[in-house]
Write a structure and sequence with these properties.
The complex is a heterodimer of chains A (about 240) and B (about 80).
Chain A: H1 2-21, E1 36-38, E2 43-45, H2 49-61, H3 66-74, H4 76-97, H5 112-134, H6 143-160, H7 168-193, H8 215-238
Antiparallel strand pairs in A: 1-2
Helix pairs in contact in A: 2-3, 3-4, 4-8, 5-6, 5-8, 6-8, 7-8
Chain B: H1 3-24, H2 28-48, H3 52-76
Helix pairs in contact in B: 1-2, 2-3
The chains are: A mainly alpha (about 240), B mainly alpha (about 80).
């Protein structure tokens, strides 16, 4: 009976979502079809928000990846909040899973293939993660997936070497420095131009690595921060320390 | 039906089936792996729908990290659901 009820509720929610999404134009590149209703002036114009991002995004921010332009530049303050949420989650996991007495547990060594493969791949995975967040303003990707890739390389080490554990002090230092960089850049924007997280550096030429002003710096900071936080979560969840 | 529709339908069917399997299995580690398969298929679907940013994030966080964390949590508790 319970399961039937659950299935009925799931189907009802699906129908509501499907009805809501049926009205969204799918994959429509014709920008003239977007209409924006302004409730204050009671007018319908074609100058919509997505239209503005697509047409003016590159000139406004210097970033060729519009998703990054929105995440780091237009809604940079929102991203600061997002990073803070992740920091709080990591702190919560660390506080809950903290073990004062380090248990001496007999751990089985991993397979030789896994150990050698982890040794070989570890550096390359970190390099790939760094590539993802350094090129966040040019290619798909950014700080959050790049940090997750870096954390997954540490996860590989945890799986291959059961006695391995990341040093908490170093994680704390890299995490705090990255967060500090983000806030300091925001405050510099406030000092220079009067807006928090203002893009005060020159944009440079689009599609070049050193372009888009502060966006690559912020995304690198986010990548390092997310990477150390997620590594801390993995370390807390493993719970195997000597 | 063009290729896009066929690929989308296949991916959606795999996604829904693996989600149902993840909900129904009593062996929690197998359920976690089914959840990881669902995340991977969702990330492919995001890529097919031209959202590569979301696809990369879903593949690295959903399919790799969160599945590993769920498996660690299961290892710390019990493997079988009553």
């Amino acid at each position: 009976m319970k399961r039937v009820l659950a299935a009925i509720i799931a189907i009802l929610i699906f129908i509501v979502f499907a009805m809501a999404f049926a009205k969204v134009p799918f994959g429509d590149v014709n920008l003239e079809d977007y209409h924006y209703y302004n409730p204050i002036t009671n007018e319908t114009t074609q100058d919509s928000v997505p239209n503005h991002y697509l047409v003016e995004g590159k000139n406004d921010t210097g970033s060729t990846n519009i998703v990054t332009a929105v995440v780091v530049d237009y809604r940079g303050f929102d991203t600061l909040g997002e990073v803070t949420v992740l920091f709080l989650a990591s702190t919560g996991v660390g506080a809950l899973m903290y073990v004062e007495e380090k248990k001496k547990r007999k751990v089985k060594r991993a397979n030789a293939v896994v150990e050698t493969g982890a040794k070989l791949l570890f550096g390359f995975i970190i390099l790939f993660g760094a590539y993802i967040f350094v090129h966040g303003h040019l290619t798909p990707g950014g700080g959050f997936p790049g940090g997750a890739v870096i954390a997954s390389s540490f996860l590989l080490l945890y799986l291959a070497y059961p006695k391995f554990h990341a040093e908490h002090k170093k994680l704390n230092i890299s995490e705090s420095l990255a967060g500090l960089t983000f806030v300091i850049i925001g405050l510099l924007g406030l000092l220079i131009a009067g807006y928090f997280l203002y893009n005060f550096l020159p944009f440079g030429l689009p599609t070049y690595l050193f372009s888009a002003g502060v966006i690559p710096i912020i995304y690198t900071a986010i990548g390092i921060k997310v990477g150390s936080e997620l590594t801390g979560i993995v370390d807390a969840m493993m719970g195997v320390r000597e | 039906m063009d290729l896009f529709t066929i690929v989308s339908i296949i991916l959606i069917v795999i996604m829904v089936v693996s989600a149902i399997i993840a909900a129904e299995l009593k062996d929690l580690i197998s359920a976690a792996i089914a959840l990881g398969v669902m995340s991977l298929v969702v990330s492919i679907l995001f890529f097919v729908l031209q959202a590569p940013d979301v696809a990369i994030t879903e593949a690295s966080i959903g399919a790799a990290l969160s599945m590993a964390i769920i498996i660690f949590a299961i290892k710390a508790t019990k493997r079988w659901e009553k």
